[in-house]
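README: folding subset

This subset contains proteins for which both the sequence and a predicted structure token string are available. Records are stored as plain text. Below is the entry for Serine-threonine/tyrosine-protein kinase catalytic domain-containing protein (151 residues), shown exactly as it appears on disk.
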Amino acid sequence: MSPEYARYGHFSEKLDVFSFGVLLLEIVSGKRNAAFYRFEHSPTLAGWAWELWTEGRGMEVIDASVRETCPPDEALKCIHVGFLCVQEAPADRPTMASVIRMLQSNEATSLPPSKEPAFSTNRNSIPVVGSSQLPAVFSNNGVTISLPEGR
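--- output ---
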């Protein structure tokens, strides 16, 4: 889910670009973004992949089954394009037409640099059910019944 939709309910074509980026990362990594926080220390798949990418360990993002069937440079290009799609600001994301051109291109070096993806740190995260970060009281019901009546 894109940041602008999660926070404000805003729809745009860039929302689809964000979702496509998540899908690219899921396919290449063999991991699902949903419930990712249960298995890794990063809050999202993009955050985990970004951490490895910036440490020069991008090959570790690629699932073994993808390594067997896809050239490494193609898989790394998909990861890079995925990062471009999951940028925090919609204006920083490419259009779908640009995404298609990037994926069809034979030159991975021509891709623009990527910034840190949205939701890659806990700075904007929502507490997870069962988390010690949750407030002790979820709501305070101030309604009272002053004249109870029998049936």
